[in-house]
Design goal:
The protein has 7 helices and 15 strands. The protein has 265 residues and is α+β, with helices and mostly antiparallel strands. The chain folds into 2 domains: 149 residues, Fructose-1,6-Bisphosphatase, subunit A, domain 1 (Fructose-1,6-Bisphosphatase, Chain A, domain 1); 100 residues, D-Maltodextrin-Binding Protein, domain 2, CATH 3.40.190. Helix 1 runs antiparallel to helix 2 and helix 5 packs parallel to helix 6.
Length: 265
């Protein structure tokens, strides 16, 4: 494990643990941002902690986070060679309702390529983390005597008919109708948890028709290093395409074709 990944794991767990101090509180303060998505005091507190830890350990690195925007790398007019990408609470809609399927996301991007990523599920005490060329690790029981760490691997189901699709929202009805006939098993276990399930072989596909770079940055490397495939809805290999599709790789091309019925060739 590189120092960068070890650091990402440490701060993701620290920030995630902080969110638990707010989780399930009846007096949790929730506001709506300009895009009408919710933000809580826990989102802001956790991102402030992440930024403080990064600034102390890597003062020249850039930082991009959901709640407080971008801090450019020192001496650079753009995002810089190294940039930390943060989502303190991915799944705020779940978090604010006391549903444990939310995560703290940390990724390191170097020259535009994500080289390390962490998905930490604080309320589930579960985590996946990965770095380039080293595979994905699945850790359960974090903080208990039952903590266990093992390699993560995608499943081997080869058809959509026998696969499980997880999705974040049913609001994109046209998209959901495209895949509903192909997948016989569909569950609304969404946000980062859906992609974690793909990386650990418990689901074969995850669909996010719309999300931001801080949602996708760690997902791509975690899924790919577990043997799967991650692209945007159009099939482009990117963590910044505005949408995300994770699969075990075996059904990816077929799923992308269904999602783009008017594509030629």
């Amino acid at each position: 494990m590189t120092d960068d990944l070890a650091f990402a794991i440490t701060i993701a767990r620290e920030a995630g643990q902080l969110t638990l101090e707010y989780f399930g509180r009846p007096d949790l303060q929730v506001e709506l941002k300009q895009d009408q998505s919710p933000v809580t005091e826990a989102d802001r507190a956790a991102e402030k902690l992440l930024r403080a830890r990064i600034a102390q350990a890597f003062p020249k690195d850039g930082i991009l986070g959901e709640e407080f925007g971008e801090k450019l790398a020192a001496g650079s007019r753009d995002a810089g060679r190294r940039r930390w990408i943060l989502d303190p609470i991915d799944g705020t809609k779940s978090f604010e309702r006391g549903v444990p399927l939310y995560g703290t996301l940390v990724a390191l991007e170097v020259d535009g390529v994500v080289t390390a990523g962490v998905i930490f599920m604080p309320a589930l005490r579960e985590e996946v983390h990965a770095e380039t060329g080293s595979g994905t690790t699945w850790v359960t029981g974090i903080g208990t005597d039952l903590e266990d760490s093992k390699p993560a691997c995608v499943s081997k189901f080869g058809t959509m008919a026998e696969s499980l699709l997880c999705f974040t929202s049913m609001r994109e009805r046209e998209i959901m109708l495209l895949v509903a006939d192909a997948f016989k098993r569909m569950r609304g276990w969404g946000d980062c948890y859906a992609h974690l399930l793909v990386a650990t072989g418990r689901a074969e596909a995850a669909l996010d028709p719309q999300f931001e770079i801080w949602d996708g940055a760690p997902l791509k490397i975690v899924v790919e290093e577990a043997g799967g495939t991650f692209t945007d809805r159009q099939g482009r290999v990117t963590h910044d395409g505005g949408s995300g599709v994770s699969t075990n790789g075996l059904i990816h091309d077929e799923m992308i074709a269904i999602l783009n019925p008017h594509r030629q060739g």
